[in-house]
Amino acid sequence: KQKEALLLLLDVGPSMHSVLPEIEKVCSLLVQKKLIYNKYDEVGIVLFGTEDTDNELTSEVGGYQHVVVLKDIKVVDGDIVEALQQLPRGKNDGDSSIYPFLYALTLMLVLDAVIVAMDMLIKKFGETNKGKKRMCLITNAQYPIKESYKGTKEEQVTTIAKQMTVHGMRMESIILRGKLSQDANKGIMDENDRLLNIFSKETSTRLLYVDNPISLFGALRTRNITPVTVFRGDIEFSPKLKIKVMVYKKTSEEKFPSLKKYSDKAPPNDKHATRDVKVDYEYKSSEDPDKVVPPDRRIKGYPYGPQIVPISSAEWEAVKFKPEKGVKLLGFTESNNVLRHHYMKDVYAFLPEPGNTKAMLALSALARAMKEMNKVAILRCVWRRGQSNVIIGVLTPNLSDRENIPDSFYLNVLPFAEDVREFQFPSFTNFPASWLPNELQLEAADNLIKTLDLAPHGQQEVLLPDFTPNPVLERFYRYLELKSKDPDAAVPPLDDTLKKITEPDGDLLLQNRAVIGSFCRSFELKGNPLKKSRRLLGGKRSFSSVDVEGNITAQPANLIENASVKVEKIGDLTPVQDFEALISRRDGPDWVVKAINEMKNKIFDLVEDSHEGDNYPKALECLVVLRKGCILEQEPKQFNDFLRHLCNFCREKKLNSFCDYLASEGLALIPKTEAIDSEVTDDEARSFLVKSESKVV
Amino acid sequence: MDVDADDIFRDDEDDPDAQHSLLEDESSKEYVVYLVDASPKMFNTTCPAAEQDQNDETHFHIAISCISHTLKSQIINRSYDQVAICFFNTREKKNLQDLNGVYVFNVAEREFLDRPTARLIKEFDHLEESFSKSIGSQHGVVSGTQENSLYNAIWAAQALLRKGSAKTVDKRILLFTNEDDPFGSIKGAVKSDMTRMTLQRAKDAQDLGISIELLPLNHPNEAFNVSQFYADLIGLEGDYLVDFMPSATNRLEDMKDQLRKRMFTKRKVKSLKFTIVNGISIQLNSYALIRPTVPGAITWLDSITNCPLKCERTFICADTGALMEEPITRLHPYKNQNITFSMKQLSEIKRVSIGHLHLLGFKPLSCLRDYYNLKPSTFLYPSDEGTDNSMCIFIALHRKMIQLNRFAVAFGGSSSRPQLVALVAQEEVIQSGSQIEPPGMHMIYLPYSDDIRLVEERYSDSSGMVTKASDDQIKKAADLIKRIDLKGFSVCQLTNPALQRHYAVLQALALAEDDIPEMKDETLPDEEGLARPGVVRALEEFKTSVYGDNYDEENEHNTGEPTEASKKRKANAEFATKECENYDWGELADTGKLKDLTVVELKYYLTANNLPVSGKKEAIITRILTHMGK
């Protein structure tokens, strides 16, 4: 694998001093990451705007003043990190006293630095290491330029740019503006911009303007991951039209590094100890925990509801879903048929096959037509052979405004029917008036949204994701560096600059404090809790917690009457209904017991008062409903004891015929299967009356 | 689960941790009784709408198919929930209390209220055919009798829901009926008695923590009048009553859709505080409306007994070979040192905010680029823990953000990965009476610069000139786009063929069936449509305008020299083929000595024979043996 050679070209002139601490942080972070992920990469440091001059070109050909090679190109190490953490400043007067000698320069200082860097790379690598030679320039480009004797400035820059391309060098230029640069002559800055733009056009230069410290942090790529194709092949529009593309990941979460487990078993002074921990997995039978089951006796079980279905790998291979590799178009649709929140995963980029002009044109035509018509394409993708699933994705155009970047597409993965939960939420329109904002409040919200603007017109967007670094990762790498020097170092606080990502910008709030104040005042009142009406919000519906407001549903008059006359005791006319009403009364804890007791008495009365069994059916009815009630209220003992007692009572009173009647009607004790608290088994319950009968005989 | 990361569906790039963090806490279980009215009225097909729809869809059929659909998604997504299916107004009876007119449908090896099984789903699918024979429909409330089937049904359902504590389990009764006046056939005191008793029964159930929800079925020309009886039963009031009814619709399909949606209970992921400015914050609930459904975790079984195996993890010090406790220190190599971290330090590094959302500002929606995405979004809706005032703030911001075309930028995200999020206000969308998009805000997780790759810019240094399409080419492309239009495309109308296949296989095996039903892959392009003359013509014209007349040559033409990588691949294959000849594979296979070779050696065979080289050693050996036909 080829190693990257990177030269950092840092402007340390007086006007840069205020931002140098930020530059020190981001550059040392870059090198720290290289120490972890690309520890064989090489790095060198070139400073310009210095008082001194120290580079090979100046001794060889003269000129190239105020350019210092701080570190020659070498494999990354702690020395470079330390050098970057303490960059020497140029003359530190803080005023323009340095300018007189800078004016003396014939070439723009930036160009001098670039030439010095090119020279270093060429001397070290020659024609080798193509595409892996990288320069990274950070400057505010405020140096005035004087006419060159050798030709116009444009020609100069173009010549340098051509040379860079020939040698396969890439350059990133980060130009500081706004808060990061001091007030400078606008004419000088424009002139510089124009020249730097030539670089961007002629070479593979990434030219970035940043105007705040967070963006400076994010703009410098601290870790370059070589893109790997996810798929190369055709987008199939139909069997007759295929366009050759390359698919890459456009976003992919950079994870917190996974750390190894540490073993402290080896003696502390053992220099060769790896400190590694091996993790072993053993599969053991659940019946015999001492028995280890060998791998060839293991089979995978897939859950399906409560069942686990065993399938061997070979079987699974034979029956599983095996889609054919390829990317196929399903069709085009209005872009508003796919909403932003449907995007499921990280994003892919579709680029034309390199060197294939026709594919480039075809994609460009489609992308531009789709953009114009507000359409998106729906694709079905199977990236690899043997992949066991398909992706349905939405393809959106990504038009390029740069001359050396082709039009391309982004693909976002869409959900399948199984992935969507169709929860329903109450409409805001149905809410009571007190929940809805009034005109004044709407206006306050309107003002708040307009003033807390993170993308003000004509200015750079704040917190642009492309330029916003992950503060946690930064903190980890910084801590790692601290620990390498002092193992007992404490966790450092979040970097001051990056802390601004996590909280609102104080300046913005301060500027707009009038609007914020009026917003707060519009919503100042404490308000009433919503909880009372939580049903409306789809909370758990609970009848008892809500007071019924009468006027909405006109209840039948007789119902109201009936409801208002509360049943207090079990009467003679409708004992079954009375019992049910009584046992379901919830305005006191005693009603259940009361209902059961009253019913017991009623049944005794009925049986005792019976003449030749004329009350038996009614008594049975009562017993059945009592039984039901006791099951439901989980009072099986009440019923079982009562039935036993009743039967004994009947036998004593020579009322065996009632027991016979109950037996013939199949009345039984309440067994455990019907009420968990019962101590009676099924058999016992069923045979209770039969047994008592036989006893008597 | 630590058992095995060898998941069947996962892309190589997918990270198991990330998958895991997406699984929200769904520990709360749900017990549901589907209470379906089986009265003759449910079987009427006389409503004119049904005739227009051509198929004789009865309300009974709609209810049954909604339940069947829900069961199928439940066994995949929420298989720990328990269900019972209970019919009332039936001829036969089967229930715990032996009540008349109530029939609990069940299958072997399952309690009445239990987790859904493959058998339940299968037999339930065929229930309609045998319903009249085995269960039968019958009017339950007839004048002159004391029978009250609705009362019985609620009682039976309540008895079914007796198990489990109401604190940990959500208990619900879902009542399907098209009879808005169940006691309409009787009059006088008996009627009021029955009404009173039934309402009391329902109230009792609700007091025990059981919620009763009504899923009314509508006749287009005779709307279901909730206030007739059911409003009291389920405790409805106020504006909600208006909102409650699925809007009268002429299409049964729409009604089915509405019912299906209402059968889900919302489960929130968590509550969070959204700080707008200092001193003003609103309480929100977050919901996972879109999450990838993946097959459940694999359990290892003993292939002889089919008993589940327990996986035991042991930690061994690589230096001394000693067994050890799970280490609490982590290490990272850096500058030839081993830097160690305690778990406490690691969590301190990650602790940036306290898990709440902080508003940072607003941006126009055009700033939300298509590539700002990493994982599924989360839906935010005001919590009922708040006040009417916080609701006001939410609605005011919601309304104005939509009006001004802006989204909010906030800092939040999970504690394991604090990050910037975009809050996009979504207006409620209602189509044919059912809610397609709920009103609220979608939280979209934004990438950091570290997560974005510069693929387009890297591209520019590998190729020469870049050209953009001409106006004519764009016009031809536009014609093509017009031709291949997916009318009314809606996200998630396609089912996942891999998942469907997976569960079809499992279902067949679980029921010991020989045939695995063929699934239709809905994700394939419409070949017939693409072959229509209009489409073909547009395709040809586009092709000609871009490729000229030599499309085939241009496209087949192998562009440029073989790349570095392809040269390397070729060299590798040649090397492997040569190496491969040094082994007597047949002999090794027959004597079982393949496992003694290293994976590198085994891969010579695979590469030489053009087989995939992925997988563990075990899998590789199996592949070699399969290829040799042994």
Automatic annotation (TrEMBL), chain A:
What's a single GO CC term here? Ku70:Ku80 complex
Among InterPro entries, the record links this protein to: DNA_bd_Ku70/Ku80 (IPR006164), Ku80 (IPR024193), Ku_C (IPR005160), Ku_C_sf (IPR036494), Ku_N (IPR005161), Ku_PK_bind (IPR014893), SPOC-like_C_dom_sf (IPR016194), vWFA_dom_sf (IPR036465)
Q: Where in the cell is it found?
A: Nucleus
Q: Return the broad EC class.
A: hydrolase
Q: Which GO MF terms are attached to this record? A: ATP binding; damaged DNA binding; DNA helicase activity; double-stranded DNA binding; hydrolase activity; telomeric DNA binding
Could you tell me the EC number(s) of this protein?
Answer: 3.6.4.12
- Listed SUPFAM superfamilies: C-terminal domain of Ku80, SPOC domain-like, vWA-like
Ligase keyword on record: no
Principal subcellular localization: nucleus
Domain Ku: residue ranges: 290-431
Which keywords belong to this entry?
A: ATP-binding, DNA damage, DNA recombination, DNA repair, DNA-binding, Helicase, Hydrolase, Nucleotide-binding, Nucleus
Similarity comment text for this entry:
Belongs to the ku80 family.
- What organism does the UniProt record list as the source? Cajanus cajan (Pigeon pea)
The taxonomic lineage of its organism, from the top, reads:
Eukaryota, Viridiplantae, Streptophyta, Embryophyta, Tracheophyta
Query: Which reactions appear under catalytic activity for this entry?
Result: ATP + H2O = ADP + phosphate + H(+)
Query: For this chain's UniProt record, which GO biological process terms are given?
Result: DNA recombination; double-strand break repair via nonhomologous end joining; response to heat; telomere maintenance
Can you name this protein?
A: ATP-dependent DNA helicase 2 subunit KU80
Q: Which SMART domains match?
A: Ku78 (SM00559)
KW DNA damage (keyword) present: yes
